[in-house]
Records
---
Amino acid sequence: MAEQSKLSLGGKDYDYPIIKGSVGPDVIDIRKLYGQTGAFTFDPGFTSTAACESALTYIDGDEGVLLHRGYPIGQLAEQSSFMEVSYLLLNGELPSGRELEEFSRTISRHTMLHEQLMSFYSGFRRDAHPMAIMCGVVGALSAFYHDSTDIADPKHRKISSHRLIAKMPTIAAAAYKYSVGQPFMYPDNRLSYTGNFLRMTFGVPAEDYEVIPEIERAMDRIFILHADHEQNASTSTVRLAGSSGANPFACIAAGIACLWGPAHGGANEAALNMLREIGTPDRIPHYIERAKDKNDPFRLMGFGHRVYKNYDPRATVMQKTVREVFDAMKVSDPVFETALRLEEIALHDPYFVEKKLFPNVDFYSGIILSAIGFPTTMFTVLFALARTVGWVAQWNEMISDPNQKIGRPRQLYTGPTERDYVPIGKR
Ligand code: SDX
C-alpha cells in the first residue's frame, strides 16, 4: 500500500496516496479530492503543483542541477551536440554513431520549407518583431502538412516532430533575412544543423559563407542549453494545447507565443537591453535599488527563477562561452564587464541573497548572441528554435501518456452570485 497523506476537511478525514518519483519531490495524488470533498486545491502559478509525470528533464533548484534523461547539462554542453541531445530527448538514450548519423540525415531532409510558405513573410511589415513572424509562420505549417497531423498515429507524430525540429532554423533565419531586406538563403545540407542555420542567417547569395568552427560550437552549445527545461510556462502551454488534440504545429506555435513574454524567453532580449541601459558599472547601484523597490516595476532581467534557488547551471556555461566567442570573433563588449560586476554586487546584496535570486540562462546569452551578430530581437527566436525539440519531446510524451486527459483547471470564484436581469429602463 502506498504511503498515505491525510487531509481533514469539514470534520472528515481523507487519505490521498503519496507517489514517489525516481528522484525529487514526492507528489500527493489528489485526483479524487474534488469528487470526495467538493473542494479544489488553489495554486495560481502552479508553484506547488505537478501537472504531469515526465522522464525527460529533472531540475533540482536548490542544488542547481539540470539533467536531460539523467545526463548533467554541464557534461552535455561540453561533450555532446544539439543533434545528439535532440535524439536523447526524443528517444531516451544517447545514440550510437550510426543512429546519430541516421537521425541527423533524417532531420536534414526536412530543412526546406514549402515554397508557398515563403510568401507569408511578405505579408509582415519589415519592422515586425521576428517572434510575431515565428508565431504566424509556424502556426501556418498546419496548413501545409495534412499528411502528418493525425496525432494518434505514431508515424505522423514522428514525421511532424522531425519536420518541426528541422524547419525551425530555416523559418528563424528567414525571419531575420526579411527584417534586414536580404534574400532568403536555402539550406545547404552538407553543413551541420547549426552550421546550416548560421549560413542561412548570415550568408548571402553573392558570396560563399564560411562557418567559423568556434562560433558553430558556441551556437550549438547555446542550443543545447535551451533544449528543454521541465514544465516551464511555454512547455506547459504546448502540453495544454496538445491535450485538446490540436495538431503539433499549432501546439508549437502556442509555445512560441508564450515563450515571447519578458518573464520567460523574452528575458534574454530584455537582459541585454537592461545591461546596455545601465552602461557603466558605476550606474549599477542605482539599478540594484530600483530592482529592490516594490513600487518600481523594474526587475533585474536575467535574474531569478521559479525553480532555481541556486545558480542556474546553464548560466555557468554561458558565462564561459562569452569568453570563447569574444576570442573567436576577436571582439570585446564592455557590457560583459558590467554584467560580471552586476552579478558580483547582486550576489552579495541581502535582498538577492534572501530571495535566492541568481543569474539564469538569459543573463549572459544575449552578450554572446550580440557578439555573433544577432540583433536583440532575434534572441528569443533562437530560444524558440532550440526549445522546439523540448516542446516536441514533451508533446510526444504527453500524447503517449495513458493518464493524459484534456487539461481543464477549475477556479476560486469570487464574482457576483446569481441576480436577475434589470431592463435598461429600470437601471
Ligand atoms: C526562463 O521556468 C523555466 O524553466 C523558465 C526557463 C526555461 O528554460 O524555460 O528557465 C527560462 O524563463 C528564465 C527566467 C527568465 N526571466 C527573467 O529573467 C525575468 C526576471 N525574473 C523574474 O521575473 C522572476 O524571477 C521569474 C519570473 C523568473 C520567477 O518569478 P517567480 O518564481 O514567480 O518569483 P517571484 O516573481 O514571486 O519572485 C520572488 C521574489 C519577489 O519578491 P517578493 O514579492 O517576494 O517581495 O523575488 C523578487 C520578486 O519581486 N524577484 C526579483 C526578481 N525576480 C524575482 N526582484 C528583482 N529582480 C528580479 N529579477
Note: The beta strands are 4-9, 12-19, 27-28, 57-60, 65-68, 71-72.
---
Amino acid sequence: MPGIVVVGAQWGDEGKGKAVDQLGDRVDYTVRYSGGNNAGHTLVVGGEKYALHLLPSGILNNSVPVIGNGVVVDLGVLFEEIEGLNARGVDTSKLLVSANAHIIAPYHQVIDKVTERFLGKRRIGTTGRGIGPAYSDKVNRLGIRVQDLFDESILRQKVEAALEQKNQLLVKIYNRAAINPKDVADKLLSFADRLRPLVADTAQVLNDALDQGAVVLFEGAQAHHLDVDHGTYPYVTSSNPIAAGACIGSGVGPRRIDRAIGIAKAYTTRVGEGPFPTELLDADGERLRADGGEFGTTTGRPRRCGWFDALVVRRAAVVNDFTDIFLTKLDVLTGWEKIPVCVAYEVNGERTDRIPMSQSDFHHAKPVYEYLDGWSEDISGARAFGDLPKTTQAYVRRLEELVGTRISGIGVGPDRAESVVIHDLL
Ligand code: IMP
C-alpha cells in the first residue's frame, strides 16, 4: 500500500494532523502538496501540544517530511517553525523542500490584506498570509520559486518584474506605498544559505521511493470544499487540496495513489465567509465552539459551527473517491440528548440529497435534519468500536450509511492515542 492521501472532507480543521500522525510510524515520507502556512495542524503528542502551519505533520515522527512543488512557502515561517521544533528537541534535519515550490514574498501578504479590505462585504475572509496572491503570480508566470534564490541576478530580475505592475496597483488604486524590489530580494536572499541543504528534486525523490516500495503519505491541507475547482467558489483557497491535487502538487502519477482517506469532523466547522447550510448561530453553536475548542490554529478566529452535513461529506467522498473516512472529535458531541444530522436540503421548496449545482441555490439551501440519540458517557477511553455506547455506535453507523464510505477510525480525544481503530488505515 505505498501511496496514501489524506484529505479534509469539509471546510478544513477536521483534525487531519491527528490521523496523519497516527499513521506516521509506518510511513516513510509525509508530503504536503498544496496550500501554505494558511493551514493549521494542532498535534498533541505525549501531552505536548504542537501547532504547525507549514511543515508536514510527519515532522513529528520518523518519516521524511517533504514540502512538494504545489506548496507556497513563506521562508520566514518555514525557519521559524524549524527553529521552534528544534528548540523543543524535535529533529527536522530530514526535511526536503521542492526546488519548484513557489515563494510567498512579503508583497503577497500586503496584497492579500488590501484586496480583502477593498472587497468589503464581498471579502473571502482569507487568512491574510498571502496565499492567493502567491498562487496568482504562479499562474501568471510572475512567481518566484525556491530555486530562484540560488541565482542572485535572476532573483533580482524576477522580483522587479513581479513588482512592476503591483506597485502601480498599490500606489494608484490602493493608495499604499510602493514596495522596493531591492529590499524584497535582499530579504529573500538572506534565507538562501539555510535553504540550500533542504532543496531537492522532490518529484524524483518520491517516485524513486515509491519504486522501492516506500510508504508515502500525501497530507492534504485545507479541505475538499475549499478547493479552488471543487469547493464553494469564490469562498475557497487558491489551490487544489483534493486527492487529485496530490499528483500535481508532488509530481506522482494517479496510479501511485492507492488509498484516499477522508477526514470528517463529527459535526461541521468553517472559517471565513461562504455558504454553510447547517451553521448554528445560536447557543447550540456557542456550545459546540466551546466544547470543541473551535478557534483557528492559524488566525485565532472563532470558527463557525454547525451539525454534521452528510451531503457535504458525501460529495467529497465522490470526488475524492475516498476508500475510508476517519471521523474526528466525536467526544465533543458527548452530552447532547439528540444530535441533528443533515440528510437533505430544501432548495426553493424542493428536497434534494445532492449539493446544488448553482452557488445561489447552495446559499439558500435549508438543512433537513434527522435527530439521532445522543450519549452522556465519557468516550475518551474507547479504543475499539465495541467500547462505545450503543447510541454512539448508531450515530457512527448512520453517518457511514449516509456518506457511503466506511468509517475506519474515530477520534475520541485530542491526544495521539485517543482513537478508536475499526479498520487499519495501512
Ligand atoms: P486563504 O487560503 O488564506 O486564501 O483563505 C481562503 C479561505 O480558506 C478562507 O475562508 C480561509 O478561512 C480558508 N482556509 C484556509 N486555510 C484553512 C485551513 O487550514 N482551515 C480552515 N480554513 C482555511
Note: Residues 152-173 form the longest helix (22 residues).
